[in-house]
Design brief:
By secondary structure, the chain is an alpha/beta fold. The protein has two domains: about 290 residues, no CATH class; about 120 residues, no CATH class. Helix content is about 40%, strand content about 10%.
């Protein structure tokens, strides 16, 4: 970066396009997620027994399949298999994830609604962790139960170069005393994985400036709820580091877990700290109460269950504040469409200002025009939109470098 970039205030928004570009093991789009969860359940892997049980319990009500016999941890494997077989046969009838959560929240009695809702959130967390494992092992399914396979460090050779280049851009910016925030709307922690594997000196993560709690390392088979009670689950140092990049997570992710209204536990993208904790031992474990941890993965909605934790409203506010205080926004694969359409209402309160948007996406002329119009609609005021329509790649990051070296 050149000296002209000192003082840049940049917000980077990571949408689905940022994850889809992670070519070794692409993560599915929201609309494809529930069928993908079933595909994982069909895998012959003994580690996934509780995952299969939870998933059957959560998805059965979506297709009016009775799940009363799955309510107890001691439910028979035959009953789990029966429900999963029915779900697989009707997988094309499954709704999108946000619609599934809304349906489950409306179930009666309330205990069924709560247990199925958080069972689904936990299942998504397991799936995301397995996708990460596939990336670690070059696309192979992790079926070996040996502890060393679950704790081995991620190889830097498996990281896509475009994401590495993006981290280098961030490093250069914060090194020149610029302020950078990253809003990650995905569940997969891809950028954290990249950052962790590169050994970057930048203090990067959801925990920057926050007295959050960390899920400590522990023996295999220990649940997250048990780990959260260990002495290592303590607040991090919140002193301002020299190089810092805060992450904002409005939709939660596979590395962040909640308890009660206020407690947040974050594992920073490391596979070994989340894998066995997600495979909890009791069906009743993912409940929205003070005793148990639950996955934070919930799409944007006006869900009462979602807002029982302050995490989501706080993260949404940080997202809006980051955009409000930035004059340059880098958007990668995000159009504020579908379930994210709610952000138009959130951004409506922004004060008119002159802003510049660098948008990386995919499509032709029609999609480019639509993208320009969408950003003008979202931000109001005077908006200059520059686009790169060949998706996230090394050439796209080179384009970002050139654009950032121009006038701000």
């Amino acid at each position: 970066m050149t000296h002209s970039q000192e003082g840049v205030r940049l917000t980077i928004i990571l949408g689905a396009g940022a994850s889809r570009a992670y070519a070794r093991s692409p993560y599915p789009l929201l609309k494809d997620l529930l069928p993908a969860l079933l595909d994982l359940a069909a895998r012959p892997d003994s580690r996934l027994g509780l995952y299969r049980h939870r998933l059957a319990y959560a998805l059965g009500p979506l297709l009016r399949i009775p799940v009363d016999q799955l309510a107890a941890p001691s439910s028979s494997q035959g009953e789990v298999d029966r429900v999963l077989s029915m779900l697989l046969a009707e997988r094309s009838e499954l709704p999108q994830l946000d619609e599934a959560f809304r349906h489950l929240e409306g179930l009666r009695p309330p205990e069924l609604a709560e247990r199925t809702y958080w069972a689904l959130a936990g299942s998504v967390g397991v799936f995301m962790n397995e996708k990460y494992a596939e990336d670690i092992w070059a696309g192979e399914a992790v079926t070996d139960e040996r502890p060393e396979r679950l704790t081995r460090s991620k190889s830097t050779t498996s990281v896509d170069q475009a994401h590495r280049e993006l981290i280098q851009v961030i490093d250069c910016l914060v090194g020149s005393e610029s302020d950078v925030e990253v809003v990650d709307l995905n569940y997969d922690c891809v950028l954290e994985q990249v950052h962790y594997s590169m050994g970057s000196n930048v203090n990067f993560g959801w925990d920057v400036y926050r007295a959050q709690q960390i899920v400590p390392d522990g023996p295999l088979g220990v649940t997250l709820s048990q780990r959260a009670r260990l002495p290592g689950a303590s607040p991090r140092d919140t002193r301002r580091p020299l190089f810092r990049v805060p992450l904002v997570k409005p939709h939660g992710d596979r590395c962040t877990f909640l308890r009660g209204r206020d407690a947040v536990f974050y594992s920073g993208g490391r596979y070994s700290q989340t894998n066995t904790g997600l495979l909890q031992q009791e069906l009743a474990d993912p409940k929205a109460c003070d005793e148990y941890l639950r996955s934070s993965i919930v799409p944007p909605s006006d869900s009462d269950f979602r807002y029982r934790s302050r995490f989501y409203s706080q993260e949404e506010r940080r997202f809006v504040e980051a955009v409000a205080t930035s004059r340059t926004i880098l958007s990668i694969g995000w159009r504020a469409a579908g379930t994210d359409d709610c952000y138009q209402q959130r951004f409506a309160k922004l004060a008119p200002a002159s802003r510049r948007v660098l948008a990386i996406d995919r499509g032709g002329l029609a999609e480019e025009q639509q993208l320009r119009g969408r950003w003008s609609q979202l931000l109001g005021g005077e908006v200059e939109v520059s686009t790169y329509m060949s998706g996230l790649c090394e050439a796209a990051i080179d384009w970002v470098r050139r654009e950032l070296n121009k006038r701000r």
